[in-house]
Each structure stands twice: as C-alpha cells, then as structure tokens.
Amino acid sequence: MYNYHFNDMYLTFAFMSITPEILEKAKAYCAYQERCQQEVRDKLYTLGLHSQQVELVIAQLISDGFVNEERFARTFARGKFRMKAWGRIRIIRELKGRKISEYCIRKAMTEIDEDDYLHTMKTLIDKKKRILGGKDAIAPIMRQKIGAYVIGKGFEPALVWAELNRSR
User: Fold this and answer.
1) d(C-alpha 81, C-alpha 11), whole Å
2) Which are the contacts of 152, defined by CB distance < 8 A and separation ≥ 6?
3) Cβ neighbours of residue 122 under 8 Å, at least 6 residues apart?
4) Do the Cβ atoms of 37 and 58 come closer than 8 Å?
5) Closest by alpha carbon to 35, among 60, 63, 58?
6) 85 — alpha (psi -120 to 50), left (phi > 0) or beta?
7) Which of 94-123 are b and which e, b meaning 16 or more Cβ less than 10 Å from the residue's Cβ?
8) Among residues 85, 144, 81, which one has the least CA distance to residue 112?
9) Residue 133 DSSP label
10) Sorting pLDDT into bands at 50, 70 and 90, what band is 10?
11) DSSP 156
C-alpha cells in the first residue's frame, strides 16, 4: 500500500513537471509527419525528460490522436513502397527496427497491392537490365547483379529469381 501511494504521488509529480511547452513541442513534432512511439520517445529524451515523464507524454499524445502505431505502419509501408520501391522484406525490417508490433506490421502489409508489387519488381528488373547493357539474353553474371539489386531493395528472393528465369 505504501509503495502504491508513493508511486502514485511520484507519477503526479512527474505529470506536474511536464510543461505545456513540452507537450506542445511533442504535438507539433507529431503533427509535422506521422511518427511512431519510438521516434517520439527518442525526441522526448533529447528534450531532457525522464522515463516516467516520457511515458506520460506519449500516453497523452496517443489519447489525443497524435500518435497511432497502426496508422504510422500503414503510412510508412505505403510511402516506402511507392516512393523508394522497397520490397516487403525491407519494409518489415524497418518497422521492426522501430519496435512496431506484429499486428501493426500485418496491417501495414495490406497497404501493398499484389499486382502493384509484382509490377514494381518487374520495373526494377527491367531498369537494372537497361543500365547493365540491355541485352535480351542476359549473361549469368548480369542475372546475379540484377537479382542482388532487386533483393537488396527488399523483394523476396524466390519472386525475383522466378521473374529473372521467366525473362531469360
């Protein structure tokens, strides 16, 4: 009972020490672009807040709708696929690096249309083919380079090699 009271009092003190300026800075940071909790947490630590204060600010931002992990994951996946032509593997790795839950990652992957995904992969293969020489029958070393490039963008190796074998 005594510890609970102490913790409750400590949390009240931590919340009282969060200035309106800090909360407004955090809201502006989140309003500028979609952010995940980890990015907000890192930013708040750079502002000199302690862990309890950081968690209280994040809780407030979530309740006010400034931070939403699922919305972030969906936006991130859609944007990286369309703007940078990243594959699913790369997007998933980046989301995991930002400590996004498996549930949100699964939801984010629904943002990528399968036909668009395959079309993007084929476009990357064709683009790299033209850069490397553009011959119809590509040499094994060129196939390796093209495959490595597209796989490096985060596309599944089985899909890449299937497409490269189809386009021989």
Assistant:
1) 41
2) none
3) 163
4) yes
5) 58
6) left
7) ebeebebeeebbebbbebbeeeebeebbee
8) 81
9) T
10) very low
11) -
Q: What is the pLDDT of residues 12-30, one digit of tens each?
A: 444 457 888 999 999 999 9
* Token duo for residue 103: 């549930």
Amino acid, res. 35: R
Q: What are phi and psi of 134, to 5 degrees?
A: 70, 15
Residues in CB range of 12: below 8 A, 6 or more apart: none
> What is the DSSP track for 70-83?
HHHHHHHHHHHHHH
**pTM for the structure as a whole:** 0.84
Give the whole-angstrom CA distance, residue 88 versus residue 52: 35
Enter the tokens of residue 79: 């944007």
